[in-house]
Amino acid sequence: MNKLKYDKFITNLLGIRSYFYVNDVKKINKNLIKGLKKPFFLTIKSRHSLNTIQKKNFSARFICKQYLFSMRLNHKNLNSNHCYLENGKFKKNVIKISLEKSSNSHYVQDKKLPLNFRNKLRFNWVKNFYKGLRGNHLVVYKKKFVAGFLLLIKKKENLIIDLIVTKRSQIKKGIGKSLINFVCSNFSNKKKFILAGTQSNNYAAFKFYKKIGFKKTNKEYYIYHVLMK
């Protein structure tokens, strides 16, 4: 069982102390939120659904279920034309795309969280990359203009997709696949797998990952939010 962790990123955006808790066993410590001073916000990520009593004790609201997909990074002659590692050249365009309102994050799905926080979550997410606070690599797709980007985090022998975004007007034009192909072509000698998490109701993401070769793992989590004012 992981310990309660302070979430500096969400704290700065919400303006109240925020925490993150990952639970891999059936029972959650009943004293989880004991001693936390109001107001606070907590995200619970649990391998098992909370029962009625637990939800009441923690004032927890179920938001969605989250799945993990995985694909081995095998180097092949893949089409990754028009993809580049970001070095600051594309910042203005990447940030502009990040402001398009199409995120399916569990934070965005929670209507009890402030609208401005939800609308600008992805924008602030990307800004933290440029500040050197989040992510290790950012891959950009640019042909005539910047049409998408992929933010990666290194974790041991794997790469995690922290964010993958396609400009709304360019969806279903193979941009996401090209970004993934670039990762396979350029990181397969350094990392073993690329991992991607997505919400259970993000059907487009499910279809996309399966189509390009990702496999759904047995890592499934229930996401709950606790907002105490």
What does this structure look like?
- By secondary structure, the protein is an alpha+beta fold.
- It folds into two domains: 5-65, no CATH class; 70-220, Gcn5-related N-acetyltransferase (GNAT) (Aminopeptidase), CATH 3.40.630.30.
- Helices cover 28% and strands 34% of the residues.
- It has helices at residues 8-14, 52-58, 91-98, 106-109, 115-119, 121-130, 175-187, 203-211; strands at residues 5-6, 17-23, 40-46, 61-72, 83-85, 137-142, 146-155, 158-166, 193-199, 215-228.
- The longest helix is centred in the C-terminal third of the chain and has 13 residues, at 175-187.
- The mean pLDDT is 92.
What attributes does this structure have?
alpha+beta, Aminopeptidase
Helix-strand layout with pairing:
Elements (H helix, E strand, L loop, with lengths): L4 E2 L1 H7 L2 E7 L16 E7 L5 H7 L2 E12 L10 E3 L5 H8 L7 H4 L5 H5 L1 H10 L6 E6 L3 E10 L2 E9 L8 H13 L5 E7 L3 H9 L3 E14 L1
Parallel strand pairs: 2-3, 8-9
Antiparallel strand pairs: 1-2, 3-10, 4-9, 4-10, 5-6, 6-7, 7-8
Helix pairs in contact: 3-6
